[in-house]
Amino acid sequence: MASYDQTEDRQAGYSLFGSKEGATSRPALEWSQEQDGYSLRIFGDWQVRHVRRIAKEIKKLKCGTVGAGPKNLTVDMAGLTGLDTAGAMLILDMNELLKSKGFAPEIVNAREADQILFELISRHPRERGDVEEKSSMVLNLVRDLGETVLSIGRDIIEITAMIGQVTVSLLGLVIRPWRLRFTSLVHHMEHAGLKAVSIISLICFLIGAVIMQQSVEQLRAYSAEYFSIDMLGILALREVGVLLTSIMIAGRSGAAFTAEIGSMKMREEVDAMRALGIDPVETLIVPRVLALVIALPLLTFIGNIMCLAGGAFIAYTTMNIDLQSFVERLNDGVDIRHFYVGLIKTPFVALIIGIVGTLEGMRVQGSAESLGTHVRASVVKSIFLVIILDAAFAMALTAMGI
User: Fold this and answer.
1) Of 74, 286, 303, 313, which sits 20 to 30 A from 130 (CA to CA)?
2) How many whole angstroms separate alpha carbon 295 and alpha carbon 201?
3) DSSP string, 188-211
4) For the range 389-397, what are the long-range contacts, defined as Cβ-Cβ under 8 Å and sequence gap of 24 or more?
5) CB 314 within 8 Å of CB 216
6) CA 178 to CA 279: how far, in whole Å?
C-alpha cells in the first residue's frame, strides 16, 4: 500500500492539521485505508510556487505498493487551501497514476471553481514528456535507415514520373512547336547560362591551375613534368570541366528553379494555372529543363577552355612553356575523344538538375520553412545525382575503351 511519510514535515514543525501559522499552506498528502476503500487527503496550497514540493510528494506516493483489496479511492480536497492550473494538472496526473495501479479515484469536497478548472484542463490534452520512453540507439538507427530507404524510393518514383511527363510534353512540342514558351526559354538560358559564365570561368581557371601545379611538383622528381600537360588535358576534358560546371549549375540554377516554383506554389499560382487549364509542366518545367540542356554543354566547353588556360598559365610561370608550345603538346598528347566523352554527359546531367530542381519546387507547401527545406534538398540531391551519373559514365566509357 502506498503511504505518506510525514517525517520531513515533523522535522520542519509542520502538522497536517496545522496549529502553526503558515504551515497549512504547504502542500501535503495523507494516505489511509478505510472500511470501504482507500482515502487520499490533499492539504495545503497546490500552486505553481510549490510545484517541486508537490512533485516530490507525488513521487513518494508513486513509490508505494498497492495490496489486494478494495480499489475504491476517495481523493478528499477539503484540506486544500489554494489551487491554480499547475496544481490542478498535478492532481489530474496523480489520478492517472493511481488509475494505472488499479484504483478508481473520485474527487470529493472540491470547490466549484476547482471543478471548473479540472474540466477545462481535461478538455485540452497535454504532452506528457515524462511518460515517453527513450528509444534505444539501435532502434533509432534502424528507423532512420528505413525512413532513408523509403525516401530514396519515393524520390526515384517521382523523378521517373517527372521525366515521363517532361518527355510527353517535349513530344507534344515537337508536334505543335508554336506552344513552346520561347520567351521563357530565352529568359532561363540567360539566367542559367549567360550569367553563370563569369563564376564558372573563374572556378575552372583556378582548379586547372591547381591541378597543373600539383602535377608538375609530383612529376618533377622523375623529370617528367612535361607530361603534366597531358594529365591536365585528359582530366579537364573528361571529368573536371563537366563536374565543376555541373555542380556549380546544380547549386545556382537548380536552387533558383526550386525557389521560383516554390514561391508560386506558396502564392497558389500553380493551382490557379491548373484551374485555368494551363499545364504547369509545359509552362513552368519544360522551358527550364530545356534551357539547362542547351546551356550546360556550352558552359562545360567554356569550363574546359578555362581549365586549360589555368594550366597554361602555370606551365608558363613554372616551366617557361609558352602558349604555342603548350597547345602543340596538348594537341599531340590528348586525343579529341576525351573532349567528346566529357561533353556527351552534359545533356543527361542537365536533365537531372532541371528535373530535381523543378520537382522540389512543386513539393513546396504553404510556408517559408517548407521553401527553405526543399531548396536545400534540391541542391543536395542534384549534386549527389550528378556525381553518381558522372561516375557511372566514367566507368562505363572506360570499360568500353573510349
Assistant:
1) 74
2) 14
3) HHHHHTGGGHHHHHHHHHHHHHHH
4) 389/345, 389/348, 389/349, 389/352, 390/239, 390/242, 390/243, 390/246, 390/345, 390/349, 393/341, 393/344, 393/345, 393/348, 394/238, 394/239, 397/341
5) yes
6) 15
E strands, 232-294, are none
Residue 151 C-alpha cell reads as 525516401
Q: How much is the mean pLDDT over the chain?
A: 83
Q: Is 50 exceeded by the pLDDT of residue 4?
A: no
Q: What percent of the chain has pLDDT over 90?
A: 40
Question: What string of DSSP letters covers 76-115?
Answer: EEEEEEEE-HHHHHHHHHHHHHHHHTT-EEEEES--HHHH
Strands 28-34 and 104-108: unpaired
Does residue 96 surpass a pLDDT of 90? no
Helix, strand, coil tally for the chain in percent (to 5) = 75, 10, 20
pTM of the model: 0.65
| 125, pLDDT greater than 70 | no
Sign of CA dihedral 382, 383, 388, 393: positive
d(CA 205, CA 241) in angstroms, rounded, equals 10
C-alpha cell at 164: 515521363
Query: The C-alpha cell of 57 is what?
Result: 510528494
> In whole angstroms, what is the distance from residue 144 CA to residue 151 CA?
10
Whether 61 shows a pLDDT value over 90: the answer reads: no
